[in-house]
Amino acid sequence: MDNIEIKEFQGQDDEALEMAFYAFYPTPGDVEKIKKMAPYFKDDTSFVLFENNKPVSALICKPIPQNVRGLINQMCGIQNVATNPEARGKGYSKILMKKAFEHMKEKDYVFSTLYPFKESYYEKFGYISFPQVRTAIFSPKQIVTLLKKDLPGGVERYSFKDGFEIYEKFLKEIQNSIHGMGIKHTTEIIRYKDNSNEWVAIAQNNGKVVGIMTYKITGFWKEIKVRDFFYSSSLGKYLLLQFLAVHADQVKEIHITIKPDEFPETWINDTFWGDNGKIISREWVPSCMGRIIQIEKLSNLKVGEGSISVSISDDYCDWNNKSFTLKSDDGVLEITETDHSECELTIQGLSAIVYGCYNLDDFEFKGWGSLTDDYKIKIEKLFPKKSPFLYADF
Question: pTM of the prediction?
Answer without folding.
Answer: 0.95
